[in-house]
Amino acid sequence: MKEIINSQKAPAPIGPYSQAVKSGNTLYVSGQIPIDQSTGNLIEGSIEEETEQVMMNLSYILEEAGLSFEHVLKCSIFVSSMDNFARINDVYGKYFQKNPPARETVEVSKLPKGVNVEISCIATF
After folding, report:
1. pLDDT tens readout for residues 37-51
2. Beta partners for 35?
């Protein structure tokens, strides 16, 4: 069994996928990119601003499911350049000050809409 989770505060999916899917005690959150749902625009400022928007989008979806970053077990971070790793990590780290989740960070050749960072996560209830 699965339950689809959709937050009106986070960007609507731009393809055939759900923002998140709950199965049992686990929530699988799709990769989020720096789109501001209130304007529909990509955040195209600094990598810190992009990462902040991605984390906010994740938080909106987690919140819709009744969870927070404390419930996150694992994150996957996709970046357009590892040169931005430290700056992304600084923003990301603010959301996981205590008992951070497992994660991987991978440099990829391209991300949707030409963004510089995309993050997905898995959380538990």
Report:
1. 999 999 989 999 999
2. 42
